[in-house]
Amino acid sequence: MNIHEYQGKILFKEAGVKVQNGIHCKTVNDALNAYDLLGSKVVAVKSQIHAGGRGKGTLYDIETNELVMEGGVKIAFSREDVEEYAKNIIGRKLVTKQTGVNGKIVNNLYIEAGCSIEHEYYLALLVDREKKSILIMASTEGGMDIEEVAEKTPEAIHKIWAHPVDGLNEKDALEMADNLNLEGNSKQDLVSMLDSLSRMFVEKDCSMIEINPLVRSDSGEMIALDAKVSFDDNASFRHPWREEMRDHSEEEEVETRAHDHGLSYVKLDGNIGCLVNGAGLAMASMDVIKLYGGEPANFLDIGGGATRESITTAFGIILEDDNVEGILVNIFGGIIQCDMVARSVIEASNELGLKVPLVVRFSGTNHVEGKEVLDNCDLDVHTASTLAEGAEKIVNLTRSVE
Amino acid sequence: MSIWIHEESKVLIQGITGKQGTFHGTKMDEYNTNVVGGVTPGKGGQFVDLPNKKVPVFNTVAEGLEETNADVSVIYVPARFAAAAIIEAADAFQEKGGGLIVCITEGIPILDMVKAVAKVNQYPEVRLIGPNCPGIITPGDIGGCKVGIMPGFIHEKGRIGIVSKSGTLTYEAVAQTMSVGEGQSTCVGIGGDPVNGTGFIDCLDAFEKDPQTVAVVMIGEIGGSAEEEAAEWASKNMTKPIVGFVAGSTAPPGKRMGHAGAIISGGKGTAAEKFKAFEEAGIYVARDPSEIGNVLVKALEDSGLR
Question: Most buried among A199, A375, B29, B95, using CB within 10 Å?
């Protein structure tokens, strides 16, 4: 789960990480009031969406698709500037490197007091899966795309690790400060910030904290000018407060709906819908469809606890996608029984009025019974005994549709 | 031989009185797994009826180990309690001199796993498999030792070792070996979480040392770099042939594909990179899981094993 920058900064403040004063706004009027309240001549007017690259993004009108403004984060030097920028941002579509071409509609704005910047840094905390620990990485090349830095100048990225129980070793934090060439109060600021952030990372069960840029002000203070925070969804049970921070408009409705039914669904751009048990097999099914010249329309893992009801939901979700011209069901029965899936598939097909070709491949628990159920039904179902055969059949069937 | 478990291994079930624990405990017993007892805090002294026998329930793993002398503990407890269950088992096995923990549970918070794995790693004689995995199985002459949720009947005792990040794709690999007349020595599901216990290299190393195993099928998926590291390790340390497949060639970047660890982030962890690492390490590559059987035959023939 991701949250907005303004929410991340509330958590930063609580954790003792320095941030500029700022106010969350929903309207142009809010933004003007915020400007008056902040009492800072220069402010940043920042689009709030769950994607990076906002500063270099472009805003478009949602109806006409016309370009409204370059840059989703603007520095305003007057009340008039704030008004202009807020008008250009709220309710517009922001397209960034991370949003894809469809962009995201900006419903939230953050007005933040300006800050005199001496230097920009990059700082991130995430779980290092190989070292099985919390990785803190930083670079003196702030404001830039970190992937680019990693690619071109990997030596500019400095790394230390914090343990979730033992915490961050002060020696490591001091070394990081040295590597970033920080001195005096800046060095102290960074060490304390790293300690606060690694505590926050553990306490809030984060999966990532990214600050780009982290800045050194003209007085040497280290200030988080950005806040990108994601949480580990598996830990939501111990953080009920997260629900209040959730912005449903930022989430794919269909993916959330699938999740609520115990399904794992990701929409893709192809024309062959897939319904599979197990994440690895679901990916492999997509891969094999592609090998046979088709394009998968989705990833869908129905999980080990699938029921008639969840399979019907899964079928419904696949068929909602107008691009779908055929469906491949691939089940390797372990806990799940193929005959149960067969009956569920027939029921769902009848209920939803299936009009596209359907290929079913069963293996494992009760696969013979499953095939019998399909052979004896009125539905036009093609069966296959291997994944390759199933993929080939559905690819050919969807071709003949064209 | 086989790796880590064998037909006589004594297995304890943590969470045996829960729905999952009872269901899979029953299936394990049906497969002739030597289930010796279970653990559910507060239910010590009770008994659970399995098809072949009645087994005692203990309040703690330590108590269970003392009474049954179990070698393996399998965890079917809910995600929020699973890391604590791993740590409890690790401490208890350490007292006893070692053992194997198999955690099936899916959805454990990642930082809980960082803590649990750090604990297990303090004890060289204690091994953790999982979490978020189907478990481990060593097929025997009649049934065998099944520690997990995989369908027992698809397996047969043989000479191929299987290691995989994915559940159902492991079954697919098993079916592929069977389709070319080969059985399995041991099949290990290491799980699809970003932070887990036993990794590919541990399994390859054990298969290399196991006399029953002559070849290995390794199934990876997108995310992280465990496959690349394993490939590099194998190129230096494995004499037995490996057949490899990686799921997720068509997965888009930045999207989690079901498993918590299956995500391409920052352009890293793609299937293409992993396949490339496999090829560079001399691993026999199957681009389609339905081809694993044929590729395995080729690998065995090249090594003079068929």
Answer: B29
